[in-house]
Specification:
Helix content: 25-40%
Largest sheet: 7 strands, mixed
Strand content: 25-35%
Radius of gyration: 17 Å
Structural class: alpha+beta
CATH topology: Aminopeptidase
CATH architecture: 3-Layer(aba) Sandwich
Number of helices: 4
Number of domains: 1
CATH superfamily: Gcn5-related N-acetyltransferase (GNAT)
Number of strands: 7
Strand order of the largest sheet: 1-2-3-4-5-7-6
Order of helices and strands: EHHEEEHEHEE
CATH class: Alpha Beta
């Protein structure tokens, strides 16, 4: 999508985030939970804004020490397959790498093949299946991405 801007979410974005959530999931997170995630400074909450200033997607991830959990990522239905989720993930991963996070993990509905393909594009590995994970009784696939660290070898100069 042209002129896409990824930025940190603000309280003024809550209404639009709730609309994206409601349009994206059959059992959306309630407003009070999204508000709490937005207020929690331990979370990384990003939004994607189109060239007209309209929010078209968001992602939120918790950060605890060297581990991060992608809590949710969503894009308005009319904005899907335009690189918005990819841009959100790239920005999130860039932030996590800069903060020396070692792993990012997530859960995704087992049959959500488009999302699974996106995560695999970012080198997420399938870890396990979580039966009855969602409120409708469907299973989730837990996936994890490990950040690669470059090890610099220092030669031992004995002599």
């Amino acid at each position: 999508m042209e002129n896409l801007r990824i930025r940190p979410a603000s309280p003024a974005d809550l209404q639009a985030i709730c609309l994206i959530e409601g349009d994206s999931f059959s059992d959306p997170y309630p407003r009070h939970l999204l508000n709490r995630l937005l207020d929690d400074t331990g979370n990384i909450f990003l939004v994607a804004e189109n060239g007209k200033g309209v929010l078209v997607g968001y992602c939120v991830s918790s950060l605890e020490g060297r581990l991060s959990h992608l809590i949710s990522i969503a894009v308005l239905p009319k904005g899907r397959r335009q690189g918005i989720a990819t841009a959100l993930l790239k920005n999130l991963i860039g932030y996590l790498e800069a903060h020396r996070v070692e792993q990012l993990w997530l859960e995704v509905k087992q049959g959500n093949n488009e999302a699974i393909k996106l995560y695999e594009k970012f080198d997420f590995a399938r870890m396990m299946t979580l039966e009855n994970y969602y409120s409708d009784g469907s299973a989730a696939l837990r996936m994890r991405m490990s950040f690669k660290r470059q090890v610099v070898k220092v030669e031992d100069k004995q002599g």
